[in-house]
Amino acid sequence: MSSIKEIQEEIVSEFEILGEDKESTIFYIMELGENLEAFPESERVDENIIKGCQSKVWLTADEVDGKVHYKADSNTDITKGLISLLIRVLNNRRPEEILKADLNFIERIGMGSIIGSQRSNGLSAMIKQMKLYALAFQTKQNA
Amino acid sequence: MSLDIQKIRGLFPVLHQEVHGKPLIYFDNAATTQKPQSVLDALTKYYEHDNSNIHRGAHALADRATRYYEDTREAVREFIKARESAEIIFTKGTTESINLVAQSFGRKFIGKDDEIIISTMEHHSNIVPWQMLCEEKGAVLKIIPINEAGEILFEEFEKLLSKKTKLVSIVHASNALGTINPVKKIIDAAHAVGAKVLLDGAQSTSHLEIDVQALDCDFLAFSAHKLYGPTGLGVLYGKRELLEAMPPFLGGGEMIKEVTFEKTTYNDIPFKFEAGTPNIADVIAFKASLDFFKSIGKPAMKAHEDSLLAYANEQLKDIKGFIPVGTASDKVSVLSFNINGMHPFDVGQMLDAKGIAVRTGHHCTQPLMKRFGIEGTVRASFGVYNTKSEIDKLTEGVAQLARLKNK
């Protein structure tokens, strides 16, 4: 499995191919959302909603063999694409790796100007929640 | 008479730019309109030549600034055909104007078990101030229902009216749907039971000819920035006898006649309601916006905007997956819609990537969205400088997005 750094490099080069055209970049982000693992209907509940997102984002995390497995969904396609990027980088890793991760790809691909400030705040909230899950599992593992 | 739209566009510097490498198409006029050069020039001129605090100043600049400030008040009076300029109060915006009525008129004249009527299609700024007042006073808020097209059910409104009704506060034209409400009928029916009427004119004043005396409304609230004028400035019109009977809203300078530590007497209207140094520069520049309306003429502007709305409806209606929201027979140039299978945020972001500025979401009308069982809409709202070729771009964009989910 590639490292967090390697996957981020992959994403950066994919976005570089798209170039400056905002429209095709957003279409691409929307398409990425289609790769998300199916989200169980039973988990689509208020407790799993990430606070701080304008659109609805549901996120769950399970510990599988000491690694964090995330599942997420959203009611908007662009947000789904954004989550799928985060999951691609952080999924199925040990909690300490996730906590240490410097997600520099977001800035490097200029995500802020692609998605605007409201959605950027939402993206930060998603990362925070993913790291909180990792912290919870790490605390449990170290207990 | 048809307008020379290219000439009008030439007056608005902001329109001539590209966003994301595409020419800007500005369809967010119900949120705020762009400003003509004359308004920008008036702002600069004020700060370069006339800046001074108004009223009471014993020097030339203060005198000039005061005169220009009061000239705008007179121009507003003329714009809404009020009886006298003392009935025009400058505020921060529609929201503050409504809150002023709630806090001043409401606190004095509305008591326990009295009733206030609003409609399902109100902006939050015409809901929350009344909820706050009702909570404080033990008064009751009643809601006029609407039909599927987004029109008020007038007979239901009549059923809500009673001797208990103290105020009807209603939007003249809906920001989310564009519906123009039958306000003259509403005002007459409310007056018949002794209730006062506040009109939220935030969306109507830029499109419809307003004559507060013919309408006989008791209050009218609106904002300058939706009238091709500066932000941070609004107007409250009130009938003299009401404004005189109402207590001040804010205390401070300007609003007093005489202050002693024992007792303060208040200034006459409109100054009683303009405590502190007002937004002088924007008030003065607002006159240039009103002159802009005069120079073109509201009926011609409305005819153009109506033709844009009709054209947009015609172009979009057959797109598979296009869902119009708000199909009232009488509308201002607001087109609210959804695309089947797509979230309005995504539609808005995709249109933005095409250079098209629209608004998405609940438009500060959550109860209305709930009534339609939707989270929000995409709203394109047209101003005098918009063109049919811009609508063609919107249509292309919507058609492309609709195809993604409606094959």
TrEMBL record, chain A:
Gene3D superfamilies, alphabetized: 3.90.1010.10
Which Pfam family, an example, fits this chain?
Answer: SufE
The Fe-S metabolism associated domain covers 20-131
- Superkingdom, taxonomy of origin: Bacteria
**InterPro entries per the UniProt record, alphabetical:** Fe-S_metab-assoc_dom (IPR003808)
Q: Which family does it belong to?
A: Belongs to the SufE family.
Name-wise, this protein is SufE family protein
Organism per entry: Algoriphagus lacus
From TrEMBL, chain B:
Pfam families under this entry?
Aminotran_5 (PF00266)
Q: SUPFAM superfamilies in the record, alphabetically? A: PLP-dependent transferases
Which residues, if any, are the signal sequence?
A: none
Cited InterPro entries: Aminotrans_V_dom, Aminotrans_V_PyrdxlP_BS, Cys_dSase_SufS, Cysteine_dSase, PyrdxlP-dep_Trfase, PyrdxlP-dep_Trfase_major, PyrdxlP-dep_Trfase_small
The chain positions of domain Aminotransferase class V read 25-394
Check the record and name the PROSITE patterns matching this protein: AA_TRANSFER_CLASS_5
Q: Which CDD domains match?
A: SufS_like
User: E.C. number, please?
Assistant: 2.8.1.7
Any one biological process term the GO annotation gives: cysteine metabolic process
Instruction: Tell me the Gene3D superfamilies matching this sequence.
Output: Aspartate Aminotransferase, domain 1, Type I PLP-dependent aspartate aminotransferase-like (Major domain)
- What reaction does this enzyme carry out catalytically? (sulfur carrier)-H + L-cysteine = (sulfur carrier)-SH + L-alanine
Q: Which UniProt keywords apply?
A: Pyridoxal phosphate, Transferase
Q: Which cofactors are named for this entry?
A: pyridoxal 5'-phosphate
The record's GO molecular-function terms, alphabetically, read: cysteine desulfurase activity; pyridoxal phosphate binding
Q: Which NCBIfam families match?
A: sufS
- Assigned protein family: Belongs to the class-V pyridoxal-phosphate-dependent aminotransferase family. Csd subfamily.
Function as written in the Swiss-Prot or TrEMBL entry:
Catalyzes the removal of elemental sulfur and selenium atoms from L-cysteine, L-cystine, L-selenocysteine, and L-selenocystine to produce L-alanine.
> What is the protein name given in its UniProt record?
Cysteine desulfurase
Source species, please?
Answer: Algoriphagus lacus
